[in-house]
């Protein structure tokens, strides 16, 4: 609110200055009619003029009606004598010089206002607030210390290996003598890498809370500005402040914003970013010692970081923060569930098994969604049914209950999803079908959800080929039943093509191509593995072959088991959602 009033007062001052300028420079006199000297004399001689004012070489008069007119006096005539007539008041005025202060204000005020506005908007762009222009190069890191550091390792679950590796950092910050007595050197920097939402930032804050040391937090994008040299200045200022607070932790989130590999481009913002990176490299392992300052950085893309940044002496230790396994997910759920009201029927082990691939952030969001539903329905506590409903919402999207589908659309969607589910059930080694629905969720008109029974860390070729068949099962079902195809399988075809291309180009799973890697261009547009045009044709043929084979398999399976597919589609039209148990009953009845 204070900022609002401050901005309001500034705009009021600007408006006031504008009014003053308009008042100074706008004409205030009435309009004057310009006539020739002869016409002016005729008007005087006719007795229509009672008063004449002469200013330098201009004569001005007003007639009896009140109209004003003026003329330019000729240089070769006496300027006053023709107007010395009886009954006419003649007034001769000297040129009025403006006051020196008014002249200065009139000349310089517009420039002063423009410069002032420029400075103000520049400060606003830089997030200046009450800061001056000289703070552009100051660090924007937020300092957390003392009672603010309340997070500890007890608040971090599901990433025990990463937490144990960082325990040495905490021990060093608490008692450096344990390590220095035996000549050990604590890592200068730790790079945390992992998928979004796995808890990298949370882990860094927990280290500061455990060690009870000052914690500087900044994002990589806070260093880089449009002005060359500002980023490097901020890096210097950050380490200068950190040395004053040593021992301390400097945490740089999303370091890939400033630490990308150098040489990817030239000119413009790249020069500024590379200067910032160079200064960061110098500060981390330069001639000046940064004793007691430990750098922790987080990134989702360690592969694009500059090699000089990742070498020992800068980031001595690189720690992978993975997605949690089933035990880790259960621990994370229990940490977040401790903050909400749970019913006695909630079993976190079941929820953990049903959320493969969930990150810590997604699990926290799921618990929060269940709490919001409990508050909306006014039930007081979160039941198992609400947890399942929240899980479906996070995994598949919210139900679009307001979307009205025609009977034809519902029937087409039911057969489409039945095709996915039946192919998944018939092929060996696939993940069990958990739920099938024709209720629109997110962008999809229907969904088939599979949940793995075990944690998978790698996929076999047969498993990937079966998934190609499952993805194409919906399109094949439409073609078999209706003799036509729709755009509903667009996303399925896109995913199937991507899997097939990776099988050929990255994982060496094509007999025609062999165990070769033909990965596409990287993030910087550079080819990772150049190959000839003939090889490109062979790659395309191998990808088409995998997709075509999967389509033929799905067609054979659905034609052989069409009665079961019909039964599944009818069950979906009746109930809108069927479970894995319902599918097993339909399979048993149809065999």
From TrEMBL:
Residues the record lists as binding ATP: 194-201
GO cellular component terms given for this protein: plasma membrane
Positions of the catalytic residues: 417
EC numbers on record: 3.4.24.-
Keywords (A to Z) from UniProt: ATP-binding, Cell membrane, Hydrolase, Membrane, Metal-binding, Metalloprotease, Nucleotide-binding, Protease, Transmembrane, Transmembrane helix, Zinc
Note on how the cofactor is bound: Binds 1 zinc ion per subunit.
Residue sites binding Zn(2+) per the record: 416, 420, 492
Domain AAA+ ATPase: 186-325
Top enzyme category: hydrolase
Transmembrane segments: 7-26, 100-121
Membrane topology: Multi-pass membrane protein
UniProt-annotated location(s): Cell membrane; Membrane
Entry's Gene Ontology BP terms: protein catabolic process; proteolysis
The protein's required cofactors: Zn(2+)
GO molecular function annotations of the record: ATP binding; ATP hydrolysis activity; ATP-dependent peptidase activity; metalloendopeptidase activity; zinc ion binding
InterPro entries to which the protein is assigned, alphabetical: AAA+_ATPase, AAA_lid_3, ATPase_AAA_core, ATPase_AAA_CS, FtsH, P-loop_NTPase, Pept_M41_FtsH_extracell, Peptidase_M41
Record family assignment: In the central section; belongs to the AAA ATPase family. Belongs to the AAA ATPase family.
Quaternary structure note: Homohexamer.
Purpose: Acts as a processive, ATP-dependent zinc metallopeptidase for both cytoplasmic and membrane proteins. Plays a role in the quality control of integral membrane proteins.
NCBIfam families for the chain: FtsH_fam
Listed name of the protein: ATP-dependent zinc metalloprotease FtsH
Annotated source species: Thiovibrio frasassiensis
Gene name, Swiss-Prot/TrEMBL: ftsH
């Amino acid at each position: 609110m204070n900022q609002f009033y401050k901005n309001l007062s500034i705009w009021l001052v600007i408006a006031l200055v504008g009014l003053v300028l308009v008042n100074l420079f706008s004409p205030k006199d009435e309009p004057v009619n310009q006539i020739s000297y002869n016409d002016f004399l005729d008007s005087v001689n006719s007795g229509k003029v009672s008063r004449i004012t002469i200013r330098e070489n201009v004569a001005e008069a007003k007639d009896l009606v009140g109209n004003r007119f003026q003329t330019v006096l000729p240089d070769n005539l006496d300027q006053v004598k023709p107007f010395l007539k009886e009954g006419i008041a003649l007034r001769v005025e000297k040129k009025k010089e403006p006051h020196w202060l008014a002249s200065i204000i009139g000349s310089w005020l517009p420039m002063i206002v423009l410069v002032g506005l420029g400075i103000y908007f520049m400060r606003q762009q830089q997030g200046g607030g009450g800061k001056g222009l000289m703070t552009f190069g100051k660090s924007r890191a937020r300092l957390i210390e003392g009672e603010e550091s309340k997070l500890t390792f007890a608040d971090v679950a599901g990433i025990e290996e990463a937490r144990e590796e960082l325990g040495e950092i905490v021990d060093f910050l608490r008692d450096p003598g344990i390590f220095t007595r035996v000549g050990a050197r604590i890592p200068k920097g730790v790079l945390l890498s992992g998928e979004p939402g796995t808890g990298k930032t949370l882990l860094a804050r927990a280290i500061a809370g455990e060690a009870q040391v000052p914690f500087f937090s900044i994002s990589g994008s806070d260093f880089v500005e449009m002005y060359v040299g500002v980023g490097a200045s901020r890096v210097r200022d950050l380490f200068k402040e950190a040395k004053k607070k040593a021992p301390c932790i400097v945490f740089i989130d999303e370091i890939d914003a400033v630490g990308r590999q150098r040489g990817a481009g030239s000119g413009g913002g790249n020069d500024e970013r590379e200067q910032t990176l160079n200064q960061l490299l110098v500060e981390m392992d330069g001639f000046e010692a940064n004793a007691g300052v430990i750098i922790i950085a987080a990134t989702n893309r360690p592969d694009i970081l500059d090699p000089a940044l990742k070498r020992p002496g800068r980031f001595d230790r690189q720690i992978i923060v993975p997605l949690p396994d089933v035990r880790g997910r259960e621990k994370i759920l229990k940490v977040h569930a401790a903050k909400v009201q749970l019913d006695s029927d909630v079993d976190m082990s079941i929820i953990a098994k049903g959320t493969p691939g969930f990150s810590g952030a997604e699990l926290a969001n799921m618990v929060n969604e269940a709490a919001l539903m409990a508050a909306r329905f006014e039930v007081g506590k979160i039941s198992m049914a609400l947890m399942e409903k929240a899980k479906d919402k996070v995994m598949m999207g919210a139900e679009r209950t307001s979307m009205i589908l025609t009977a034809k659309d519902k029937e087409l969607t039911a057969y489409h999803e039945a095709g996915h589910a039946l192919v998944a059930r018939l092929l060996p080694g696939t993940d069990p079908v958990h739920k099938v629905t024709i209720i629109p969720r997110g962008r999809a008109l229907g969904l088939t959800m599979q949940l793995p029974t075990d944690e998978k860390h790698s996929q076999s070729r047969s498993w990937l080929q079966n998934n190609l068949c499952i993805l194409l099962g919906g399109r094949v079902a439409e073609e078999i039943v209706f003799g036509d195809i729709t755009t509903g399988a667009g996303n399925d075809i896109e995913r199937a093509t991507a899997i097939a291309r990776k099988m050929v180009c990255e994982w060496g799973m094509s007999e025609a191509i062999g165990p070769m890697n033909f990965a596409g261009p990287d993030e910087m547009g550079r080819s990772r593995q150049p190959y000839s045009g003939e090889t490109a044709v062979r790659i395309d043929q191998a990808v088409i072959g995998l997709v075509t084979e999967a389509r033929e398999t799905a067609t054979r399976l659905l034609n052989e088991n069409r009665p079961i597919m019909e039964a599944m589609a009818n069950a979906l039209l009746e109930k809108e959602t069927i479970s894995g148990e319902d599918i097993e009953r339909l399979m048993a009845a149809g065999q």
